[in-house]
Design brief:
alpha+beta; 15 helices
């Protein structure tokens, strides 16, 4: 805002606005709430928007309230024609009009959409950056088969970030890999609804299902003999895939399931395919191994 030709009062208002809104908005999302003492709807909105601002503070959201009777010049610059009016400001520019929001749910939806698109510097984003290499270490340990150590790592991370879906999901998958499905189910069942819908938790849920379907590795040799004696025994081959998974041989498990699909893709209502897709989800859909197996599956289904 230019200050040439302004009164001293208006210049002070501009300076205050720069201090309270423009400067902080370079790295944070500022909610500017235009209100007045005589405005009934403003008083109804005030506790809602203040609660939301507190809730989103660690995500880099700050609330600035501007009384239009005391700061008419600033209100005129924003062309405020009615109140309450609420703008989201980032890097000195209004980027969204939130005035239509009246409930906490509406504000959360709007803010979540904005925050997903903006490079906001926040306590939460900094914590996530610090946590990322530790989560990667836990994932690598789990992938190498050291399930006890992986569980220990994820439990320690859980003390630091109890609501982090990747941390909780890793802990559940480690428990499932150790054959402690009941503990994994209990941890899964205790999650709040919003966290339970996270893709990392869906992956953990698949790990539990896969662990429950696994066949003890001790049955591996007898099952291999059954399949060798009768290659068309799909049930034996399916159980063999479960035993191979229990033994940590995901390549062998994938081979067995793909062979069933090759011979009879619709066997038992696509039971082998569903099990293979579940294995993909547990390993991680972005994993190169999964990409390679998906190509093998596509070649069978569409080749």
């Amino acid at each position: 805002m230019a200050t040439l030709g302004l009164s001293e009062q208006e210049k002070q208002a501009v300076a205050d606005f720069r201090r309270d809104v423009v400067d902080p908005s370079q790295t944070a999302l500022i909610l500017v709430d235009f209100w007045a003492e005589w405005c009934g709807p403003c008083k109804q909105l005030s506790p809602i928007i203040e609660k939301i601002a507190d809730e989103y503070a660690d995500k880099g959201v700050k609330l600035v309230k501007i009384n239009v009777d005391e700061n008419g010049f600033i209100a005129s610059q924003f062309r405020v024609q009615s109140i309450p009016t609420v703008y989201a400001v980032f890097q000195g520019q209004p980027i969204a009009d939130l005035s239509k929001a009246r409930t906490e749910a509406q504000y959360r939806q709007m803010l979540d959409q904005l925050l997903a698109q903006l490079p906001i510097e926040s306590e939460a984003s900094r914590a996530a950056e610090d946590l990322a290499p530790l989560i990667a270490m836990g994932e690598e340990t789990l992938a190498t088969g050291d399930h006890e150590r992986a569980l220990s790592i994820f439990r320690q991370l859980s003390d630091m970030a109890p609501d982090n879906a990747q941390v909780v999901g890793g802990q559940i998958r480690a428990l499932a890999a150790l054959g402690r499905e009941d503990e994994a189910e209990a941890l899964l069942g205790a999650l709040p609804t919003d966290l339970a819908k996270d893709p990392a938790i869906e992956r953990a849920r698949a790990a539990i299902a896969l662990a429950r379907a696994a066949v003890p590795a001790a049955h591996l040799a007898p099952l291999q003999s059954r399949v060798a004696a009768n290659p068309d025994d799909h049930e034996a081959r399916f159980e063999l895939a479960g035993a191979l998974m229990a033994a940590g041989d995901r390549d062998g498990a994938a081979d067995a399931l793909l062979e069933i699909i090759r011979q009879d893709r619709d066997w038992e209502d696509s039971k082998a395919r569903n099990q293979l897709l579940q294995l993909f989800e547990v390993v991680g859909l972005e994993d190169p191994w999964v990409s390679a197996q998906r190509r093998r599956l596509s070649a069978i289904l569409f080749g």
